[in-house]
Structures are given as C-alpha cells and as structure tokens.
Design brief:
Shape: elongated
Strand content: 5-15%
Number of helices: 12
Structural class: alpha/beta
Oligomer: single chain
Radius of gyration: 21 Å
Strand order of the largest sheet: 3-2-1-4-5-6-7-8
Order of helices and strands: EHEHEHEHEHEEHEHHHHHH
Largest sheet: 8 strands, mixed
Distance between the termini: 31 Å
Number of strands: 8
Length: 291
Amino acid sequence: MLPVFQPYEKRDVNFPKDCEKTMLDKKIGFIGAGQMATALGRGFVGSGLISSGDLQAVDPDDAARQHFVDATGGVVGMKYPTAIDGADILFLAVKPQYLLTVANDLKGKIPSDTLLVSIVAGVRLSTLADLFGSKMRIVRVMPNTPCLVGQGACGFCPGDKATKDDAELVKKLLSAVGKAFQVEEKLIDAITGLSGSGPAFVYMMIEALSDAGVRAGLPRTTATALAAQTLHGASAMVIETGEHPAVLKDRVTSPAGTTIAGVQALEQGGLRAALMSAVEAATKRAAELGS
C-alpha cells in the first residue's frame, strides 16, 4: 500500500549551514515515480526548493504516476521525454533489475549537460558511467525510507566528472528530506547497511518494546505509541545535544535502579552484538549486490 501524503504543502526545513535555503531555478526529472521518487519530489516542493511545475516524472504504472501527482503536483507521463525534456537534474529511481533496459532505452537521449543522480541500490559509479556514458556528470545516492516523512539519512558520492557545485546541489536537495552526508564510494555499502537497512532494525526494536509493554499490561496502541516516541525522543537527544550515546545512557542509569536492571538484561541478551552483526550482514550483502 502506498503511503498517504498531504498534497505538497510547504514545510520548514533545517538546512545545513553550508546549504542556503533559496528556490532553485532547476527542472528535475525522475525515471521512475515510486515511493522514493515521490518522497524526494515532495520534499523538494514542500521545502520551497522547487516549484511543482518544475518536477516531471515517467513511470509505466498508473497508480505510481497518480500518487506522484497527488503528492508533488508534478507532471507525469508514460514515455521518457516527459522526464528528460528540459531537465537540469535527472534522477534514476528504478529497481536494479530494470536499469539495463532503461539505460539501453535512454542511450544518446540524455543531454550532456544534465546531472544524473542515481538512487538505484547497489549500482556503482563505474557501472553507471559504462551504461550512460563516461562523460556524464553522475552522483550516486543512498537514501532511506524515512525520506517519506522528511527524516531521511542519506549518503552520496559524486563521480569523477561531477563538479563541486554538483555535489553541493545534491546535498541541498537531499537536505530537503532529512540529513545528507558526502562520503567516498567505498563507504556507500556501509551506509546501505546502517541507514538503508537500519529502519527495519529500529522497527523491530519498536515492535519488541511494544510487546514488552503489552506483556506488562499496557494496551497495544498505547504501548506502540510509547515505544515509538521513546526511540524518537532518545534519537533527538543524541542529535540535538551532540553528546555520546553512552553519556546520555549513563544519565538515565541510576545506581541499583530500574534502568541498570534492564541494561543488564540487554547485555545478557546480546543486543549490541546483534545490532552490530545486522549492520555488518547488510553491508556485506550490499557489496555482493554491487559486484
């Protein structure tokens, strides 16, 4: 089921200090109008960076196209020119198994001055250059699903032909849907394992905490809301204070109190080791997909 969005309403965005909040005189195209493309487009419009008339997308699926229009106010179509014509930035937002077909269809049709941004999971810059041309300016991006609610954690890596201005532009765009970090490409797999797969691990934690609340007598809806808000609040404390998580943990852990008893149980259950292993396994799988 596609998430329900409020129609492209304006919202405040906390851009990094080096990303000035001004409307961009750019047209953005999407090859693929699925959930992530819609999330990005909605963020660009909602933050005031892009007008809805400067968004264009192509997708063969009727529901995906309608969803993109409802969420962003952009222009959609079934044929590639709808996304490509006049686009200053073109996002590749298709599933990896469709990339080769898309690349063959688009060969020679993308203007040389268009910035190509790929959010295709596992596909390396060298492969993208082989598919779309070695002279193309390409930036590889790893977003995650919280982009859908403007709380994404994204990593990006510019290709050899991409300029510093290209990197700054992509950072500004990604900052409209969360936080963005420029890294070397060899670290994209680690970002995939940590922030790309990480939301699933957090959902499992919320579910487990909710189950525990129910076991202790709380109604399910109350337990789930408390669990989610607890993780949300704790995350905000780490981000806003800038303090190490261990320091914040120690402030909650009174001598012989309830929290230290729970911490001991988590240590005995191997929570930290399990989470580290999960990120490691996801990172390894990302590397396998890209090889």
